[in-house]
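Recap from last week: sequence in, structure out.
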Amino acid sequence: MEKRSFFKLHLLFGAAAVFLLFAGCNALDARNNYLRPVDFGNKLRGYGMNVSKVRPLDPRPLAAADAIEFTVNGANIGVYKYDINNKANRNRLEKINKDKKVFFMGIPYPVYEVSGSFIVVGLDKHKDKKRILEALRDFK
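Predicted structure tokens:
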């Protein structure tokens, strides 16, 4: 009887360990770390949005690895990539995910969502905010 209970207990602990391993996964995963900000423009086009201008941004003010500005349906957004294989980038992205904002020249900008290695800035007044966030969630 004790062997059977011991086996069930080990099975229970094993299942709990697997559950906790996957429960620890969050928005900061490597599923889209191989992509570039310019690839997000293609994702937006796939969602039927008009991406009319693409302009490189300096990623350093937000401590990112790469950045691009898009004009989407007439309004600008900034797409920032943090290379989560880089410890400093990963730490910065974790802080953004916790605080839900970034500061640029002392001005706070809301970050509605962190998806993998990416954030989008400039959505607070964008008429297509929900669709852009949906594309961001699906950006993998």
